[in-house]
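for the writeup, i need someone to sanity check this before i put it in the appendix. the sequnce is what the collaborator sent (i think, or maybe the updated version? ugh). structure was predicted straight from it, no edits. if anything looks off just tell me and ill rerun, i have time this weekend
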Amino acid sequence: QALAKQALEPEWEAKFESNSYGFRPGRSCHDAIEAIFNNINKTQKWVLDADIAKCFDKINHDALLKKLNTFPTLSRLIKSWLKAGVMDKETLSPTNEGTPQGGVISPLLANIALHGMEQVIQDYANSIKGKKTHYKKGLALIRYADDFVILHPDQKVVEECLEVINSWLHDMGLELKSSKTKITNTKEGFDFLGFNIRHYKVGKKHSKRGFKTIIKPSKEKILEHYGQLSKVIEKNRAAPQKALISQLKPIIRGWCNYYSSACSQETYKKIGNLLWNKLRRWGYRRHPNKSRTWVNNKYWGTIEKDRWTFMTGKDNYLPKHAKTKIVRHIKIQDNRSPYDGDLVYWNTRMRKHPEMTTQKGRLLERQEGKCAHCGLTFRSGDLLEKHHILPRNKGGSNKDENLELLHLHCHDAKHGSKTNSSELDENPF
């Protein structure tokens, strides 16, 4: 399945719609959230927030294979995977619809099945005589796997798009999940991919439009996260502090990193305070005969002037939610794909690309895609050279901190001589 995926993915990555983000290389939830932000930041809109019911389980095989339209040998192979059935103990159940659960190729097949949703609503907008401009203006569909939103300033347009999408999905054997499908307004806000997206009223001093778009963690995910932390603490009431820290640390870091591109600072502070109280109670319960000062001194220490750090030592402490830096996510350019050959763009964005060395990828990311000598942005096709800040003949190392990435001609200028072709890096990209 992995080989089939490698064969099909480059072709379909060139075809997929720009606002499709789920299960695609180089794209993430944060790109989808940024796409929504860019779409609603200047205008209040109506939102169709929808979810496809049992997407992976209900895809029509014939419709999928017809859409796939690949060469017969691969088509037969994929069909055999789709029809393989499911073995539960000693019972074999046929699979007449859906894609293999947990299969390597299943997410790609699901994306292929759902490809065209964005185009179908644009075609519908173009078909409305006399109102084409009104329908097309501000209309957008943003999809992450089987979750999607449709945005438009007019509620009627959104309602009509719901009917169009329902009809289109029916041909693929799919339908919307009524319990998770609703039409709302950006003034009221909506949840998508764990984020709450909403327009808040503000004074004219803050915004001429009278509202501000704020994206933050959804209440559901905040409660879920705090509940997860609480369960870990409850399970480790008798465990050593080191063991508790080792279990809490990845949960906190993972959650904070996911929401670090949103307006999460207030949320981080609130959860941090709740966790602090929870940990203090954990400590007091363990030592009922000791004073609170004694317990505090035993389990808390000072890291970077913060006197209330839950720690066993300076090399082992619990990271605080509020210490997470908020960094705005840069949305992927609409029609970009890791297969488009632009090594500079993808290494700057992802740090790695199979056609470029890992070290150059790290340097590109560190330098934000710019030459350290001239300050200009690297372009696709530029020859890149690693320059040793402290020359090797003077004891300089090949470590990242002693290297910077330059244009080939900038490297020549820095050394005052033209580089011989035999001295170029083995991989000039």
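The chain is about 40% helix and 15% strand. The two ends are 31 Å apart (CA to CA).
thx in advance!!
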